[in-house]
């Protein structure tokens, strides 16, 4: 007996304007790049493109780190790549938690046999440097420090320069989540002294989901080489991955996602053409346009003004408004996607993204008009 052949047509996705916490709108140039002919992942032409991707990522991260490349997986895999290579059993790691994604860092440390020392701040608040100082004073044996630069669950931006400086004074390496910040606000790995950073392809870089740019300092690489226990993940073991992503002759590690890497290459070329400073300013300008309109609608921000992410605007849902029903109307009537709250903020907030190609005045105007119709209609 055979299973009946399904009569399913080709999938045709609806046209949406993506203004949630990610993914963002993908520009036509990136979509076109994804459709280019597939070549082998060891093809000399593809290997040359890989080197260009690394160079473009170093520009985006503002770093000279040799070990800078995209992990073949989403931002969560980039996060795990940093932790599984740098955390060994018994390590004490100071971790800042001011939202969902700091909590995921804590879970990584625990699963790897490390001991997390949690520095907790309210959801919607940035990380408090004074609390970090206190944590190091109480735990002088901590040699790793981790925090989320741009907390996607709340829209709060923390002072990465100040936090990394504290870690350096205490001889600790810093792991930074910049999934939502890369390409949207300044990310300055070398200037700040960040030792390991991970991001995602689908937010301010405006590529499709599924790739996670990472970067490691020389100090981080030295720590990895000095491990006395093997990396617990074969796939993410940087000692193995480096054979594929570095050197004149690539060795086989895994079949790289060829066409998605075409897309990331094109997205990074677009960023380089615009210039990172101009991209940061564009995100800021459109945030100010959106914020002015949201305030006219009577919507209040969750995050105080000096700590707001321009690319992720989190506002309280007005009293008497069914937040899920409102989002459904935005999607069905206006083709507009915004995000719901996560964790402690579920059902209480909307997260409105202005990331990458989605950060345009036309999108701001559409969002404000659609929200007004839904709230007041």
Topology:
Layout (H helix, E strand, L loop, with lengths): L16 E2 L9 H7 L9 H18 L5 E5 L3 H12 L5 E6 L2 H12 L3 E6 L8 H10 L5 E5 L1 E2 L4 E2 L2 H10 L3 E5 L11 H4 L3 E3 L13 E5 L1 H8 L12 H8 L12 H17 L1 H21 L15 E5 L6 H12 L1 E2 L1 E2 L8 E5 L7 H16 L1
Parallel strand pairs: 1-12, 3-4, 3-5, 5-8, 8-9
Antiparallel strand pairs: 2-10, 6-7, 9-10, 11-14, 13-14
Q: Runs with pLDDT <50, length 5+?
A: none
Strand order of the main beta sheet, please?
2-10-9-8-5-3-4
Q: Mean pLDDT, nearest integer?
A: 95
Give helix % range: 40-55%
Rounded to an integer, what's the Rg over CA atoms? 21 Å
β-sheet strand percentage: 5-15%
Strand-pairing-aware structural class: alpha/beta
**How many DSSP E strands?**
14
What's the shape?
globular
- First and last CA, distance: 56 Å
Total helical elements: 13
Order of helices and strands: EHHEHEHEHEEEHEHEEHHHHEHEEEH
- What's the main sheet like? 7 strands, mixed
What are the defining features of this structure?
377 residues; alpha/beta; 13 helices
Structural account:
The protein is an alpha/beta fold and 377 residues long. Helix 2 crosses helix 10 (258-274), helix 5 packs parallel to helix 6 (160-169) and helix 11 runs parallel beside helix 13 (361-376). The strands form 4 sheets. A 7-stranded mixed β-sheet has the order 2-10-9-8-5-3-4, with helices on both faces. The chain has a 3-stranded antiparallel β-sheet with strand order 11-14-13, with helices on one face. A two-stranded parallel ribbon has the order 1-12. 41% of the residues lie in helices and 15% in strands. It has helices at 28-34, 44-61, 75-86, 100-111, 129-138, 160-169, 189-192, 218-225, 238-245, 258-274, 276-296, 323-334, 361-376, and strands spanning 17-18, 67-71, 92-97, 115-120, 144-148, 150-151, 156-157, 173-177, 196-198, 212-216, 312-316, 336-337, 339-340, 349-353.
């Amino acid at each position: 007996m055979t299973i009946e052949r399904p009569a399913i047509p080709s999938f045709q996705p609806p046209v949406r304007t993506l203004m949630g916490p990610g993914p963002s709108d993908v520009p036509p140039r990136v979509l076109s790049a994804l459709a280019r002919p597939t070549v082998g992942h060891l093809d000399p032409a593809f290997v040359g493109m890989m080197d260009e991707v690394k160079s473009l990522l170093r520009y985006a991260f503002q770093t000279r780190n040799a070990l800078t490349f995209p992990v073949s997986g989403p931002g969560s895999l980039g996060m795990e790549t940093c932790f599984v290579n740098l955390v060994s059993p018994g390590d004490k790691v100071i971790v800042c938690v001011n939202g969902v994604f700091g909590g995921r860092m804590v879970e990584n440390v625990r699963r790897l046999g490390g001991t997390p020392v949690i520095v907790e701040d309210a959801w919607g608040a940035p990380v408090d440097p004074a609390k970090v100082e206190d944590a190091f004073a109480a735990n002088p044996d901590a040699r790793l420090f981790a925090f989320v630069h741009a907390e996607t669950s709340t829209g709060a931006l923390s002072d990465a320069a100040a936090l990394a400086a504290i870690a350096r004074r205490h001889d600790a390496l810093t792991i930074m989540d910049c999934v939502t910040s890369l390409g949207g606000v300044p990310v300055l790995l070398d200037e700040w002294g960040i030792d390991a950073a991970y991001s995602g392809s689908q937010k301010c870089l405006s590529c499709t989901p599924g790739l996670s740019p990472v970067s490691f300092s020389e100090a981080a690489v030295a720590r990895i080489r000095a491990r006395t226990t093997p990396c617990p993940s074969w796939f993410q073991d940087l000692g193995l991955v480096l054979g594929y992503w570095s050197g004149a002759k690539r060795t086989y590690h895994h079949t790289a996602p060829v066409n998605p890497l075409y897309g990331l290459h094109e997205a990074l070329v677009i960023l380089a053409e615009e210039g990172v400073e101009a991209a940061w300013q564009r995100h800021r300008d459109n945030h100010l346009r959106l914020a002015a309109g949201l305030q006219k609608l009577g919507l209040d921000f969750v995050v105080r003004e000096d700590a707001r992410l321009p690319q992720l605007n989190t506002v309280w849902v007005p009293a008497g408004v069914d937040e899920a029903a409102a989002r459904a109307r935005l999607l069905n009537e206006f083709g507009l996607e915004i995000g719901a709250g996560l964790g402690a903020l579920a059902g209480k907030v909307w997260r409105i993204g202005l990331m990458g190609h989605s950060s345009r005045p036309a999108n701001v105007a559409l969002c404000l008009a659609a929200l007004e119709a839904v709230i007041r209609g």
